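Our consortium's second objective concerns turning raw sequence data into structural hypotheses that experimental partners can test. To show how far this objective has progressed, the report includes one record in full. It was chosen at random from the queue rather than selected for favorable results. The single chain below, 83 residues long, was entered without modification.
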Amino acid sequence: MAKPNKKGPTRTVEVYCSQCKTKLFKYRKGGKGALVKCFKERIVEDFTTTPCQCPECDAVFARDTLVRGTPAYKMIGGKVGCH
């Protein structure tokens, strides 16, 4: 399997907690599909204090994992939204 593109996409999206609408991070997203995983190297700004946990409502929104050998957050369905 190929590693994700090092340069990465230029389009950024803001990822929010779907429960309390708190901004979690700014992410360089590629493609036009749903947000399934976030590669850590593509996160531009991180507003969380504890990884994978909303700072406002303490909801767990993702799992820390490796995708194609690269550290990433795997999103839990329905826990986050992006604009």
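The partners drew two points from this record. The chain has no helices and seven strands. The chain has one domain: 12-82. Both points have been shared with the crystallography group to help prioritize constructs.
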